[in-house]
Design a protein that fits this description.
By secondary structure, the protein is α/β, with parallel strands linked by helices. The protein is 35% helix and 17% strand. The chain contains five helices and five strands; from the N terminus they run H-E-H-E-H-H-E-H-E-E. The longest helix has 10 residues. The protein is globular and about 30 Å long. The N and C termini lie close together (11 Å).
Length: 113
């Protein structure tokens, strides 16, 4: 229930967003069916790129989709290791802490509660 209000706020502020995901090529269709596809400039999807996070090509494609250099991008993920990999490439990073999980990370955390 917290996703759409956050996406609305980011969209209203003019924040460009892309999805970087180890997922299937049909992910954009799924997001469209959920009514959230319009929030994203594009999708860096592992099936289409032929690699998985933490491969630098995944992060680079996400940045390319929003036309920003890495140091101007924020990467958010629920896997602290993937956030750390993004930070090592020059991205800013936050680990997402969902209510059903507890992250043991030294990274900044965005809480869903």
């Amino acid at each position: 229930p917290d996703v759409i209000p956050v996406l609305d706020q980011l969209h209203e502020r003019g924040i460009r967003m892309s999805v970087v995901s180890d997922n299937w090529g049909s992910m954009a269709d799924t997001y469209d069916a959920l009514g959230i596809g319009h929030y994203f400039a594009g999708y860096a999807v592992s099936e289409l790129l032929g690699c998985r996070k933490p491969d630098p090509r995944m992060y680079a494609e996400g940045a390319r989709l929003i036309n920003l250099p890495p140091h101007e991008c924020l990467f958010i993920d629920d896997d602290p290791d993937l956030v750390a990999a993004a930070e090592a490439l020059g991205y800013h990073g936050f680990a997402l802490d969902r209510p059903a999980q507890t992250l043991d990370a030294i990274l900044p955390i965005v809480s869903g509660h």
